[in-house]
Specification:
Length: about 375
């Protein structure tokens, strides 16, 4: 705010005016005149602060919360609200299975009923089956569509977490074979501000900003990479990068629908998954002599998590830096004296131990065809 005055400046200005234009001379602290001046100017100073805040809330670059929502209303572009997490049966996430015999032996109805619950061990996160799901008479497992009962990222779960079934049938088990990360929180001010700042361009449709924003508005999408002329003139590919894990078919399908709504007639855009570079690594950790068996077990688990986190955080088209991984391993604990790489596979082939590059459309990820792609011994 221009020409803003603080409380002290207002007091001095008022006293100066009284001395120059009135016959009031007693303006000492504690006097009636000084007290009245202080009360009035305290309110004026507060008004300056309120006016300054209100002015800031009227500009896109500084508006927050409710005031940013008001600006969004001018563009008919509401803030994206928190959403539930879900997975379809096609995604192959939530599986009901038996260890012996067939499902039909224990569930003669031949289907997993709608609204069957699946929860974590402590019951803190709950999902439910969204449709009756039939299975063949000889089937030993079946994938079901599920959705969370509440919204937000707090309902996202890692692999093998939803293991308690509401069926209550002995011998029928359930688990999620992939992580579920489609639950989203209410859109942050920074993301919302970015979309609003591009509202004019995206409203025109059929341009790169409109396509990018349409794809990013789909729940579960972290980023996209656009390749022009992927299949010739008038085509483009849009690689979908999820918030976590590998993009599943339902996420890609949702993005495809979003970009189709803003793509010009005669132009073909195709939402695709990144090409996965499967990684398999085995590390033998060498400990200091004073490390106990319990400490060694805990450290091995942390090392495995550290390696997995490093791999999945390499951006699309990035490079696997061997020394960076080694450094992160050594940083796990001072009880690690050294480590040895026993297995180093990329693209399912043994690779010279060193840095590994990827192409612009490739993404490093632990080999999903192996039960334990990252091993620490």
């Amino acid at each position: 705010m221009l020409f803003k005055k603080n409380f002290g400046e207002l007091i001095q200005s008022s006293l100066s005016y009284l001395r120059s234009n009135t016959q009031i001379t007693n303006v000492n602290i504690g006097g009636i005149t000084r007290s009245i001046i202080e009360i009035i100017n305290r309110n004026i100073a507060d008004y300056y602060n309120i006016l300054d805040t209100n002015m800031a809330m009227s500009f896109l670059s500084t508006a927050e919360g409710y005031f940013l929502d008001l600006i969004g209303g001018l563009f008919n572009m509401p803030r994206i609200q928190a959403s539930k997490a879900s997975a379809t049966s096609v995604d192959g996430v939530q599986k009901f299975y038996v260890s012996t015999g067939t499902l039909f032996d224990l569930i003669p109805s031949g289907f997993i009923p709608v609204n069957t619950t699946v929860t974590t061990e402590d019951g803190g996160i709950q999902y439910f089956v969204t449709a009756n799901t039939n299975f063949a008479a000889g089937a030993t497992d079946v994938y079901v569509p599920i959705s969370s009962t509440s919204v937000g990222s707090k309902v996202n779960v890692p692999i093998s977490t939803l293991t308690v079934s509401g069926l209550n049938i002995s011998g029928v088990f359930t688990t999620n074979e992939k992580s579920i990360v489609s639950g989203t929180d209410t859109e942050s001010d920074s993301n919302y501000r970015y979309r609003l700042s591009n509202a004019t361009l995206s409203a025109e449709k059929a341009n790169e900003i409109a396509i990018r924003l349409a794809a990013l508005s789909v729940n579960g999408v972290s980023d996209v990479v656009i390749k022009k002329f992927a299949r010739g003139i008038g085509t483009y590919d849009l690689i979908v990068i999820p918030v976590e894990g590998v993009a599943n078919d339902s996420l890609v399908s949702s993005v495809q629908g979003a970009i189709d709504s803003v793509t010009a007639y005669g132009i073909k855009g195709t939402a695709i998954k990144p090409t996965i570079v499967p990684v398999e690594i085995e590390i033998r950790v060498v400990f200091v002599d004073t490390a106990t068996d319990f400490q060694r077990s805990q450290i091995r688990a942390l090392v495995k998590t550290t390696i997995e986190r490093y791999i999945v955080n390499i951006p699309i088209g990035g490079e696997f830096i061997l020394n960076e991984m080694r450094q992160q391993i050594m940083d796990v604990s001072p009880m690690i004296k050294d480590h040895v790489i026993n297995c180093y596979y990329f693209r399912e082939e043994p690779t010279f131990i060193g840095n590994v590059s990827s192409y612009w459309d490739e993404l490093f990820y632990p080999n999903q065809s192996i039960t334990e792609a990252i091993r620490v011994i």
